[in-house]
Design a protein that fits this description.
By secondary structure, the protein is mainly α. The protein has one domain. It contains 19 helices and no strands. α3 packs across α18. It is globular, with a radius of gyration of 21 Å. The relative contact order is 0.16.
Length: 399
């Protein structure tokens, strides 16, 4: 999903033939889907905003919180913003990852595909888990003594080395290996080239939303999970149905070039639906946790929250894909550099965000103002540091 080179890059077979008017030239001149690259930039910025929300008062789960006590308005604003963002951010990342998985497998073959995933996902997973995550917790705990004296205690304080937001990388690696196994088991079947497939109609999309909402509801009852409640390897079980289904939808969409056949009307209609759902139901279902504490997870409120999440990821996903394809299917030098750093930003952002917040905690400011300053400083800083890291010899081979 995030890796610049193979996880989101290549032009699927038949793209040029199915591009919308005015796009064919752009697509044929580049092997990259520039509107997808640009969308990934927006999504990773959203991830950083969510974690900064946790830092300054939203009440979500994060490794460091600013010691200042936020007022009611700050908590409410950051909480609502966070619930809207987490409803679709990571699900769309898995959608994009699934979309480019078949093309990568077809180009490389099974063995090279698995080897590439182990390098691009497995190595960063190990480096983050063994080095970066301990560093983040060391900073978050106030720099207690030397880092190397703190380091051994880290492994006694966590359930597994897969702690922090690295869960996404390990889950994507697992999905990739499952896909490779499925392709190997079905290798006797005749592989067909990508072609334009019929887009699902409104009834089919609504059915998908309802089915995903129902499955999510059942899973949340089973695990009695709060939002982003970590399960084994820190994977958020309450959103796992969304991640799995969006990854599979991405694979199907790749074979049918749905990213290029989504119509402007679909983008407009589903964007409007998502907006109305946010304005009308968002204050209720986006802040579903307080109500569930009294109503329980087996309740209409919990089901409404699961259904709202499903509606948001579908509506926002369709709207953003169409919007970026129509308006931002081009890149200048800056956007190209930002897109190349998205994966690295995901890996290093906990160190940058926690390090900045810890240094900034001594400044006495209104919490919402501190949040705004942190957003404006840390997002560019993450991209700048990522650009430097990617210049290190051999690192670019992985990132």
């Amino acid at each position: 999903m995030l890796s610049q080179t193979e996880l989101t890059t290549s032009q699927p077979p038949g793209v040029a033939a199915t591009a919308l008017p005015g796009q064919a030239a752009t697509v044929s001149q580049s092997k990259r889907l520039l509107f997808v690259d640009n969308l990934r930039i927006l999504l990773i910025c959203g991830v950083l905003v969510v974690h900064l929300n946790n830092t300054y008062g939203s009440g979500g789960s994060w490794m460091y919180r600013d010691p200042a006590t936020p007022d009611l308005f700050t908590r409410a604003f950051l909480w609502c913003l966070e619930q809207i963002l987490i409803a679709f951010l990571m699900g769309l990342f898995f959608l994009l990852a699934g979309y480019f998985t078949p093309g990568s497998y077809d180009r490389k073959g099974g063995g090279a595909f698995v080897r590439d995933r182990l390098i691009r996902l497995g190595i960063p997973w190990l480096v983050y888990s063994l080095l970066l995550q301990p560093l983040v917790l060391y900073i978050a705990k106030g720099l207690p003594g030397s880092f190397w004296s703190f380091y051994p205690t880290y492994f006694h304080q966590v359930d597994s080395i897969a702690d922090g937001p690295i869960w996404f990388v390990e889950l994507l690696l697992f999905f990739s290996l499952v896909y490779a196994a499925w392709r190997w088991l079905t290798s006797h079947r005749t592989q067909t080239t990508a072609s334009t497939g019929k887009l699902p109609g409104s009834l089919a999309i609504c059915g998908f939303i309802c089915a995903l909402g129902l499955v999510t509801f059942v899973v949340r009852i089973w695990c009695q999970a709060q939002y982003y409640q970590p399960g084994p390897f820190n994977v958020p079980l309450d959103y796992l149905p969304q991640f799995i289904s969006l990854y599979v939808v991405g694979i199907v969409a790749s074979g049918r070039n749905w990213f290029f056949t989504l119509t402007p009307r679909m983008g407009r209609d589903w964007s409007l639906i998502a907006l109305l759902a946010t304005l009308i139901a968002g204050p209720v279902f986006g802040g579903v946790i307080p109500g569930i504490e009294s109503a329980g997870w087996f309740s209409w409120l919990a089901f409404g929250g699961a259904l709202w999440d499903s509606l948001m990821v579908v509506g926002v996903g369709i709207g953003l894909l169409v919007l970026f394809r129509q308006r931002w299917n081009h890149q200048g030098r800056v956007a190209k550099g930002l897109a190349a750093s998205v994966y690295t930003v995901y890996l290093i952002h906990p160190v940058v965000l926690v390090g900045f917040a810890y240094a900034f905690h001594v400044v006495a400011l209104y919490p919402l103002l501190k949040w705004g300053i942190a957003v404006l400083i840390t997002i560019p800083l993450c991209f700048l540091i990522s650009g430097v890291i990617r210049r290190i010899p051999l690192v670019k081979r992985v990132l």
